[in-house]
Amino acid sequence: MQSWIDRLNQAELPALAAVVQDLHRLTQQDKSSVQQLADVLLRDASLTSKVLRIGNSVYYNPSQEGIKTISRAIVMIGFDNVRLIGMSVSLIDGLLTLAPRQQLQELLARSFHAAVQARNIAGYVLAKHQEEVFIAALLHNLGELAFWGCGGGQADELASALAQPGVDVDEAVLNVLGTSFRQLTQGLVKSWNLGEIVSLSHNTASHNDPAVFSVNLGARIAEAALEGWDSAEMEVLIEQMANFIGVTPEDALQQVLASAEEAVKMASTFGASKLCSLIPNTDPEQIRLQQEQRRARLLQPNLLVLQQALQDLGMMVSRRGDVGLILDTMLKGLNQGAGLERVMLVVLADGHTCFRTKRVVGEGSQGWLSEFVLPVAQPEQQHIFSYVLRNREALWMGVPASYNLAELVTQPIRQRLGQGMFFIAPLLAGTREIGVIYADNRVSGRALKHEQFVAFQRFTQLTGRCLEALSKRT
Q1: At the top level of CATH, which class does the domain 2-298 belong to?
Q2: According to the CATH classification, is domain 303-473 in 3.40.47.10?
Q3: CA nearest 175: which of 163, 187, 188, 157?
Q4: Which pLDDT tens digit goes with each residue over 17-53?
Q5: What is d(CA 170, CA 372) in angstroms, rounded to the nearest whole number?
Q6: Whole-angstrom Cα distance, residue 96 to residue 361?
Q7: Could you give the strand order of the β-sheet that contains 432-440, starting from the edge strand earlier in sequence?
Q8: Less CB within 10 Å around the terminal CB: N or C of the chain?
């Protein structure tokens, strides 16, 4: 931990640390003057201009009375607000200019959201110190922010480790850093002398302190919001917040949603437009889209998983493997290995008169298990599932080569599966028809790729060989 703190302080973040320390020091002095705050900000011309621009924004200055100097900004919008602006801008600029990687942007957006939530919660229970609560929540994950901003090759290494399915996050962090993000944050807070509230927010013994409780509640709400405003975790937090500030759960939820909207406006005002789209939206449709995009971003092709699944299926051709294991291995390889977001296997059922869903994997696909039933023969209109099984070929639908088959994607199929590209192939055990395998990337709307189609064909063929070998042995 100490080596990381030394590295961050000496080589990576000295300028940011100096500004953050100086601005925070002013909160600990009873008689901090306007000139002292101005002096800290005026050391950096870029920081000065940004503070003035933000001070002149509608968010902080609705009367639009011109502010041309830092001292005037302090008089017009308040000492604490100017200090808060300086601290926030320093952190955003200092980190995003170092390495604007996705993990950093997502965490910075979450920190910003947490800060607004925490400050507004504190407003119900504290007569003062609300700006300190904001900054404490903003810096709550300082160690992780600093790592993603300055970790270099080790940040790449951790990003790869965290992309592995089923990874233990804490263990992966410990393996790469040799310490935890929590310990790194505590070390930096102590090294930068960031004051009592920031420090106490990481001490479980001090959670009865209203300011500390506000910081932690704001941080947890910002994290839970990523899973949706109606998630089970959010419900628990809303109940805690309602009890803490003395309102109904319904009113607490409305306050939380209003704070999320304020966080977006504030991030935009601070010139951090990159972060706005990463703060959970309060519009129901936008919430749904953001959740799907966030989950889809996490699903990337994993060559190791893909190769292992292919190897396992290859072994099951020659060794006995039960049907369930064969199908689960195929779905894991296609989903986690090839990065296909939704995969479905339908099998011939009811005397080969219909297709019924046998296995699914992926966001929003569970409903197919009970809902997706398709007649094999429809004299009035053929469909793509029967077509691929009869013609025994894998197809990539939605590309020019298959445009002539577009009419086989019937209205009932579109209603159940949605619009856009998909892969579809017959599953055959030798000459025996088993069913059809379907895959798409419609959770995120990303285009399918050639290497995914190659993997899709390979898994389909291998699974068929496994089932054929199994039928011969039985």
Answers
A1: mainly alpha
A2: no
A3: 157
A4: 677 767 766 765 555 677 788 887 887 777 788 788 8
A5: 39
A6: 36
A7: 373-375, 354-361, 342-349, 432-440, 422-429, 395-397
A8: C
